[in-house]
Structure formats: C-alpha cells, structure tokens
## 1
Amino acid sequence: MALSNLSNWSYAILGFFFMVLVGCNDFDSLGSNKDNDKSKNWIYVELVVETSADTTSFYRYGTIKSRILKKIESDENAKGLFSLSNTRYLSLEDKLMLIEDDEDTDTYFFKIEQVKYIQILKGDPIFTFEESSLSEDCLEFKLSKQKKK
C-alpha cells in the first residue's frame, strides 16, 4: 500500500511539473505575440464623455493598438479602457494641433463605451492635411520627420 501511495505522489508531482512546463510554453507563445500587440492603427475617433453635470464630445486623431481596435469592431458591447497615443485634434480655427507639450503627454485613456465613431486612417493626419490646415507645431513636426527620411 505504501509503495502504491508513493507512486501516486510521483505521478502527481510529474503531472504538476508537466503542467508548469506547458504553462511556460503558453506564456512564451503569448510573449512572442507581443510583437503583434505593438501593431497600431491611425484612427479618427469621436467620443462622448458624460458626467453628472455635463456631456462633452471629443474629436481626436491618434494611434490605437490593433488588437483593441479588433475588440471594438467585433463586440459592440465591449467594455474597458484603451489608450490613444500620438494624439492630435482640430483647434477652433480648424488647424490640426499636437497635444504633447511640457505639461501633457500625447497619450490619453478613454472607455471603450465612450466611442461613438471610428474611422481607420492610412497614416498620420499631419502628412495628409494641407499645410494651411496645420498648426505651427505640426508644420515643424512634419518638416523634422521629412528631414529624417
């Protein structure tokens, strides 16, 4: 009897190590998909943020992770937060503006439920807008990127 109990423990320990190894392999394969997680799309997004005192609409351009975009596309009841990076917006004078400055980064977080409209863009709107529709900081940014090419 004692020998059969020892064998059962041996099988249990081997089973545990097998599960750990399989789990590590799954983790590694998820890690290898991290490169895919870095894939981003440029979008134009309209968001409505409701508070008890007010409702505010935001109209932004920026990049979003492709997997988050697919989640929003495949599930209209999706919930959670997403980040919008490389954020741009239109000023009251209809000039495209950069958001990043000494006080703010260009990354914002919004709730998926606040999204009212998304348009997928081919690239950074700085390179598709007419120069007359760009703010000075956008023009400088565009020129600096063109010089690097």
Note: The chain has two domains: 2-32, 41-148.
## 2
Amino acid sequence: PKQIIWRIPVLLFLEVAAYLCVTYITYALINKYTHIISSKDPVLNTNFYIGGTFRAVYFIIFSTGYYFLITFIKERKKTELLEQQRLNNIIQLAKSENAFLRAQTQPHLLFNTLDFIYHNAKENSPVAAETIIALSSMMRYTVDSKHEEEFVNLRNEIEQVETFINLHQLINNHSLQIQLDYEDEVRNEKIIPMVLITLVENIFKHGELKDRSNPAFIKVVADNENLLIETKNIAKNKNFEVKRIGTGIDNIRKRLDYTYGGKADFKHYFNDNEHFNVKITIKRQNILKDNA
C-alpha cells in the first residue's frame, strides 16, 4: 500500500506534464499551418500553466471516474453471473440428491422383493432360491456405493466372478466349461472396479462354453513386478472381428489408460482364428495393496 500511495502524485504530475506538452505542441502546429487560433505561437507563461493544469486535472478526474464506473459495472455483472452460477449449482445439487434418493429407493425395493422370493422358494425349490440369492449378491455389488471409489479389493471382484459363474452354471445345469484360477496372494491386491467381472461377462456373451475339450479360463496371477489377468475362450462366431468387441472391453482399456497410464498394458486378440484372448498386465508398484 505504501508503494502505491507515493506513486499516485508522481503519476498525476506525469499526466499533467504530458498534457501540457501535448497542448503546447498542438497549439504550435495549428498556429504554424492554419493560424485558426492565433497568429502568434503559444507563450509558456503562468496563465498557460494554470489553465493547462486545471484542464488536465479535470480530464483526469473525468476519465478516472469513467474508468471506475466501467470497472464497477463489469464487476457487478461478474458478481451477478457468479451468484447465478452458485444458485444453479445449488439447484443441480438438490436435483442430484433427489435423483440419488429416488435411485436408492428402487434397489432397496428390488432387494427386498428378491429376499422375499428367496425365503418363499427356499423350501420348495432350493435351486431357484440359490439362483435368486446369487443374482441378488451380484446386483448389490454392482450398485453398492463403494464402487464410487477408485479402487476395490481384488478378492471382491473374484468373489463376484465366482458368483456370476455359479449363477450361470445353475441356469445351465452345470454344463458350462469355464475355469477360474487365481493365486491366494492376489486377493489382497487392489484394482479399479468391474474389470474382472466385465471380462467374464464378455466370455459368456461371445464365448462357446459347451466344448469340453476347449474350456474357457480366467487366470489371475502375480509376480514381483506385475499383476497379470488373462482370459481365453472359443468365440461363438468364427467371423467375429476384434474391432467389434464392444463397449465393455473398450471401456476397460480406457479406464486402465486413465488410471495407470503407461504402467498398464491391455491386449486382446485372436490366435488360430478361434480362441479369443485378453491379457492385462499392471505394474505392481502402481497397485495399492491391502494387507488387512
């Protein structure tokens, strides 16, 4: 503030001096070439300095007031715009909270209904009851609020894959040829959610799972450097193109790139024009580990 205060009179002096110089030069040029104002050159006397200073101060006050007026109007508009944005944000937040509460009501109603059906079917149809409880477990995992977190325990993903496979085995009378292999230590790793389950869903959607000689498999292993997730299955459609694999696989690739960058490698390809393979490799130093 002190530095600004002493600059004010200096700036005023310079502005007045500049105005007097411009005024003198302007008068001199006009008289020299037109003689409109006077036939004599302007005289640097007391009247010139006093009159010029008065006019300079007048113009400075007027221009300064105009500047502050324009600045005030701009700031007022900016404040009004920010206030409007704040009100819009409050309205959107209220709408989001309302939508969230409405969305929460529907899953609770669905889960309560499934629970009711399960208890009624448990005695008369144990298989149907087991199917209902498996479906309910998977749906709870999907809509659970913890999936808003960036990472989940890999053991939770594995448990949901086991539930998913068991559900389809119940529906198909345990005739599906699919294997899930994993090492116990990988259960303590953390990973972005819905990766493993999406890969398995892709197998059930596009894979041939009735061939006993070529079962589909999902493998999750780890070494000192990498976590490896690998799947392999025979494609139902031999003319199926890798580039048309669908949004699920493509979303996995985008999410891995976003979260791990160059520390994660994602590949999907056909070998021998029959087996579809997916391989995900993630550097373990980029994976959170849960030792609890």
Note: The beta strands are 152-153, 178-182, 190-191, 207-208, 216-222, 226-235, 264-271, 275-283.
